[in-house]
Fold:
Amino acid sequence: MKLLTGNDLLRGDVLWWTGEGWSLLLDDALGLEKSTGEAVLAAEAAHERVSDLALVDADWVDGRWRPLKVRERIRGFGPTVRPDLALQGQDWR
Amino acid sequence: MYRYDAIDRRIVDARVAEFRDQVARRLSGALDEEHFKPLRLKNGLYLQLHAYMLRVAIPYGTLSGTQMRMLGHIARRYDRGYGHFTTRQNIQYNWIRLEEAPDLLAELATVEMHAIQTSGNCIRNISSDQFAGACADEVDDPRIWAELLRQWSTLHPEFSYLPRKFKIAVIASETDRAAMRLHDIGLQLVRDAAGAPGFRVYVGGGMGRTPFVGPLIREFLPAEQFLSYNEAILRVYNRFGRRDNIYKARIKILVHELGAERFAAEVEAEHARVLPLGIDAPADEVARIRGFFADPPFETGLADAVDLSDPDFGRWVERQVAAHRVAGYRIVTISLKPVGGIPGDATAEQMEAIADLAERYSFDEVRVTHAQNLVLPHVKAADLPAVWAVLRAIGLADSNLDLASDVIACPGLDYCTLANARSIPVAQMVAAVLAPRERELGELKIKVSGCINGCGHHHAGHIGVLGVDRKGVENYQLLLGGSGAEDASLAAILGPGFDEDGIVTAIEKVVDAYVALRAPGERFLDSYRRLGAAPFKAAVYGEVA
Structure:
């Protein structure tokens, strides 16, 4: 599946598309087929409120999303070397 | 220290006002991201993995106590309580809000700092020797010339859109503490037989995807032709540098493809045209700048001895304290590499404490090193115990300068959007494993980059680590034999890469082989150069040497 992600314009925070809006939590993300994802991405890009929009590949594993690339898992978690600054309850491994 | 004049102040204040307007227009929707992105990058504001990152310029790595205190204030007020000192002697903040960036820059401007030219295809922050003005072996203070370059290159209209970014280093000692020959232009101040100052000019060094040690293109450039010659180099680069391929656009590729001799001939021809234009700084302007770097009021007749009876203090002095050119003074390097910490990171409280130390004990000066440490350049020998006590209290009294746990690391995939692999955890694991025996190992410079761009200087590491992406999984290549010092050389890949744990084990095997094979007095680098890669390859991969 695809997840739509980007960074908040004001704060730069990593955001995930939930189907109704944006969430800081990867766990809230909505899985999308590629064509649907591309349509949502185009619509959100036009709003210019979320930067660096991208569709990323992810698997649904044990009841939560796990992006295939470590880069996206770290985006969903925060810096692995500063877990105190990471989003609690998320997992980058 | 250099102080802004009215022109400097106007430039910085005008840029803050301009950026405030640009941000307001972006937030209102009047500017879209496509048009705003190059404007924010021109003000050092990147969008990284988790947030906006601001890179603040620290010209030639020199700060006053007031400036360091402001950096601490910014860490606390605008970030999450810390900053990251970089391999370009700058500082980066990792958690900046776009809407607050103009206020942040306005506060920076009050202490004569900014983020201009910390991104983009322009001349970046000029770097220099962190021991400038303090070490005994320099022929002059390189900061005078670095400041001249800073003024010349700031908003230089001809060099605002170069083929790629451009980095210059200036040193004035035979000992190279600034990785001078790994810069686009490396300048070493020397004196001729008559004592006149001039520069050895190296062009086309660099790390990254295609590393080179810069070749010498001019044995002696008279100091009075300093700017015109640099202008000529930049003009040749601007004219002939490739713009069709980002990976071949740095000046090192041009120098390599033309050959150093032909490149030098092009520069000499251009210089012949530039020299009569009169762009070199008049002697009185050089003298004016020199005045800002005059000696602080050193005391004479000071006691030079230091009581080393406390073994912990003695170890710190032995490792972190260097000779000063004035009797009774010392140069103190503050390690930002506590084992288990993040290389180059400092908290707001640590920055403020160091600002206090600078003001009280070092004539109000701090330096940032390209190895991500800090320096108090002018400390009385008698004050060393007091400085050490404060550093212990703030957790920065490690005694590991140039040892195995003094690892350089870029932010890597924990923060950087360009990275392929995490570099900080590897640095932390290597430091933790080797720290217990690092004194026995002697000088060992380990440098870790999270991608081929090489911000962690892996090609200049005695031991270098390069993180790559291997089918979505972090993988680490091991390189040996590099140096960014006066014996500059490029590290070479030893063999196939490793996972996160494997790279640490591989480095341990390399170090074990060194201990077994070293001749008396040999550093790791010396042994590697004498023996070649074979015995280390055998130790790591089990191959026959």
Remarks:
- Chain A touches chain B at residues 7, 9-14, 48, 51-52, 68-71, 74-75, 78-82, 85 (CB under 8 Å).
- The longest helix of chain A spans residues 34-47.
- The mean pLDDT of chain A is 94.
